[in-house]
Amino acid sequence: MTDFDKAELSADAWDEQTFPRPQESDFDRVVERAISRRGVLGGILAFGSGAAAMAAELLIAPPLRAEGLAAGFPFDPIPTQTDAQVHVPKGYVWDVVARWGDPLFSDAVGYDIAEGGPLQKSDRVFGENTDGMETFRIDGRQVVAINHEYVNRKTNLPAAQKGKPADAWDQRKLQNLQGVTVMEIAEQETGWAVAVDSRFNRRIHHNTPMLLVGPAAGHDLLKTDADPGGSRSLGTFGNCGSGKTPWGTYLTCEENFNGYFGASGEMQADLAPGYERYGISPDGWGYEYHTWDARFDVTQTPNEPHRAGWIVEIDPADPDSTPVKHTGLGRFKHENAEVVLAPDGRVVVFMGDDERGEFLYRFVSNATYASGEPTDGLLDEGTLYVARFDDDQTGEWLALTPETTGLTQAEICIYSRMAASLVGATTMDRPEWIATNPNAVEAYCCLTNNKYRGLRMNAGGGAMAVGGPNPRAHNRYGQIVRWRPHGKDYAADTFDWDLYVMAGNPTLYDDAYGGSANINAGNLFNSPDGMAFDSRGLVWIQTDGKDSNTGDYAGMGNNQMLAGDPVTGEIIRFMTGPKGCEVTGLSWSADRRTMFVGIQHPGGSWPDGAGLPRSSLIAIKREDNGLVG
Ligand code: FEO
Ligand code: CA
Ligand code: CA
């Protein structure tokens, strides 16, 4: 496989090719536990959507009518699309706020259609491939913090190089266009636009100084020659989903960090199990950073990969602040971070690890949060847990401690995946975003898909048996699992769970692959990924799936955003993205009259129609300027 070929692979496809997973040995178990569509509907869809179609005795909890949720949806659903545009319902309009390469500062050099933007000042423009985002109201200004997950190397570097850096400056340009943008935006007559030169504007990229704090800070596995104390690192990587703390800071989540590292020679043997579990390979993912910078060469800097894979806290109000990597929140391929408070004020963070057969995590702080009180240590001192889902629709959070794992506290943080494998956590169908309902004590997690469910092991050799919240072998459509903590306490160790929806294609299948009862020909989608609740209690679901619109995916069209009623289970389509894109990242303006959505890796030449496609942040409003969330 050439580097050019690697540039075409998704992160998970690359990991699979590099580290092929063992096949599931107990095929009988797969067959035995395969669940018919009828069985799934009767036994698993219990809280909401299935409720209407189910016998009352199957209900685990009564449906809750969300306080303040308007009856029905405030828009008419739209059909699927396969074109190169964004579509929204009648009565709504959309506009581009910022595109890859747009200057954040007046001294930045503008976008270059031939080369995707020059190196000069590439750390002072809006980065590429937007992902998670959160909005903040600071000093009366509207500030957005938004991730730039990765770069398309072929379009950022001169086409003749086919996406392979030719020198350290090419590498630096790629590094500059990833990470995070913090920027002020303002609404004008012509729509929302970047407030160029705002004092809040800031780019955080692959060389920005960071602090490492929490239980693993200072551990030998985090030390390098450049940082013998193991407490200061450079850069944040694979910035996927996001989170927001009650104290007004931004959380950016490092997901596919592994592909940035490579090896010029031998890899340290004692670190091999960790490298393998996290997908660190000699070749890297084609970024070639290790060719130009010893920091990314694990032969020379073996511990550098341990300094990525964390959740990073950024203060959007202070552009001079140093981002903080919180090791207490564990190291894995972090999707997003959903932060809620337990009734007693402890901080609870729900986190998914997006890889086939990896796990769902929770952190519970030791101390409690109170508005205006110091927040130091709230994301550092506490307990990390991992979820076990039982077939009887209950589950338990399993504490990862020295007693339960035999590992030290620092090792639990650095090798969270291995710790989780030791306590019997449930292997999941790629946990993506987690969101909590503002009107009920319940959390939702998108399990995007898992084509090897029932067929192979996970990266740690754990079975990916069919069952529980992962009920379909060769799961190509995905589902959303939901749990309600016992005692209405997010810090409780036990919960009930159900499936809010199983995506599928009922026009093709009448078994489990047809999806759950709330899937119909009018709302087909696959691979739920981004997710957030609005203030009214509607759950918004974004997709990152196959958009071929053929075969198993016939009738699903381009990637899209849908809205769901958590009580009735009804789901309808709100938006479709341009062909080739993923719809990811969602937040609202302070006045709730604008919804901000990210369009990542569009195809064609969207939105300019002038050569290269440019990932963008868009704003969606009602024509009557009414509330949109
Ligand atoms: Fe970056 Fe799992 O999505
Ligand atoms: Ca995602
Ligand atoms: Ca995804």
Structure commentary:
The protein has helices spanning 3-6, 11-18, 27-33, 37-43, 153-156, 168-176, 272-278, 289-292, 402-405, 409-414, 416-422; strands at residues 92-99, 130-138, 141-148, 179-188, 191-194, 202-204, 209-213, 232-234, 239-244, 250-254, 311-314, 324-326, 334-341, 346-353, 360-368, 382-389, 394-400, 431-436, 443-447, 479-485, 494-502, 528-533, 539-543, 560-564, 571-576, 582-588, 595-600, 616-622. Residues 1-6, 26-43 and 48-70 have low confidence and may be disordered. It has a nine-stranded antiparallel β-sheet. Strands 8-7-12-11-10-9 form a six-stranded mixed β-sheet, with no helix packed on it. Strands 2, 3, 4, 5 and 6 form a five-stranded antiparallel β-sheet that branches. The longest helix has 9 residues, at 168-176. The protein is mostly beta strands. Helix content is 11%, strand content 28%. It is built from eleven helices and 28 strands. The protein has a domain at 92-160 and 180-205 and 589-629. The radius of gyration is 23 Å and the shape is globular. This is PhoX family phosphatase. InterPro entries: PhoX, TAT_signal. Pfam families: PhoX. Residues 1-21 are annotated as: Disordered.
